[in-house]
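Annex B. Sample input.
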Amino acid sequence: QRQRIKTEDGLTYSIVPRQVIQAQDKFWALWDVTSLSDTLGKERVFSAELITQEQEAVLVPAKALHTRDGVQGVIVLFRGKPVFNPVEVVCNQGNEVGVKGLAHGQRVLTLPWWASLAKRWWLK
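Annex B, continued. Sample output.
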């Protein structure tokens, strides 16, 4: 089905999907761009990002994740004390993870490297 795309320079093009090719773990979509003049050439290469799903999540440092009784969560500050708060990890972006289950404005604590030696003092 015909789509319209707007480029970063503000131009709008009408595109029609022609073919989808899978190569290893990537998909390539071939589109016909109908609004470009043929005097510019027969083939053009466009780069695009295909968004297949959107999720709302809060990005937190990956090192802030902890597992307690088989449940993943983060340590948050609640009434001045550190408390374990279960979260659902929805995406992973290297040093950060996207999580659901945090209230707006909740402060996530990351622990220093030596905290694992202190026998979980922050949860007592």
